[in-house]
From TrEMBL:
This is Argininosuccinate synthase. The gene is argG. NCBIfam families: argG (TIGR00032), PRK00509.1 (NF001770). Pathway: Amino-acid biosynthesis; L-arginine biosynthesis; L-arginine from L-ornithine and carbamoyl phosphate: step 2/3. Pfam families: Arginosuc_syn_C, Arginosuc_synth. Signal peptide: none annotated.
Amino acid sequence: MTQRIVLAYSGGLDTSVAIGWLAHATGAEIICVAGDVGQGGEDMEIIRQRALACGAVEAVVADMRDEFADEYCLPALQANALYMDTYPLVSSLSRPVIAKHLVQAAREFGADTVAHGCTGLGNDQVRFEVSIGALAPDLKILAPVRDSGMSRDKAIIFAEEKELPIETTRSNPYSIDQNVWGRAVETGFLEDIWNAPIEDLYSYTQNPDTPRDPDEVTIRFEAGVPVAIDGKQVSVLQAIEELNRRAGAQGIGRIDMVEDRVVGIKSREVYEAPGAMALITAHRELENVTLEREQARFKRQVGARWSELVYDGLWYSPLKQSLDAFIADTQRYVSGEIRMVLHGGRAVPTGRRSDASLYDYHLATYDAESTFDQSLAKGFVRLWGLNIKTAAARDQRLSGDKS
């Protein structure tokens, strides 16, 4: 029986080059799997046909959009996940769901090997291989672009020589990855971190400096899940798509950062994530209203660690699964509505309401109807600072003792 290899196929330079390289190096039949994670742009059928034109014997498109939104983007939203307090894990979230479908395809087509088109410089090699190893430790893994030492310039030359039907050329050297949660752009002139991004880089967002009217939006959550926008019921996928459109039109979600990659290098990345950033802003604001203080403080620590694990390719790790359980428990009372104004590149909360709110007007008000007993505060403050006062007295006493 002819050997078969399942290749994660994006339709871009690296994976298109990988088809021919794998077939030549192994003699195997190459089966491409392309995932629709809401990236938009090209028709997925065109991408499937491109894989066949590049030498694949079979190419399948898996519709992962709702699965990706419900099982990957939603947990990130509930964690308020921002790697390095900035990046909403755009590419990081899509890799484990793609890996899951690669394993399923390998079983279906009788392949004993899975391949990807990642380079040795990036994070995705880790995310794919660790996820595949967690789901199917018996499968072998190949990384033709990385393992052949093929640079981007060499890949472009190979593509031109073979007349591969791909968009990446010498005049368009960017590496772009996108899904419904956001869009990532790297390489090219961006590798000089002094160079500012140009407007042509952006696709999901309009220029935030362009004059336009503000857009007011109200998002309703039930147990941490966005369920309605301006009173209209939505799925998680629809919520992201709607806010991609509306927040993107206001220039919200542009990110230009130098981040710490898994492999130990720093990398300059430009991201667009209008829907993700608007939803995280709203969700975090609702948690400010509904989560108890110590629970909220600890959840911020958990969210930061959760983000690091997902960024580092450890979606299927035991620790991440344990953190999932904690985060899910915190969402029991995260229900209510957040009103925001989208304008000038910012999503600004302007109203909050929830039946599960811990905000008590009568405790918070400074007016006469306040029910807060201020007479209790004097003793509370003395006890709260007693340990610090005692330590300060000790320091003062010993600093004056010269013997």
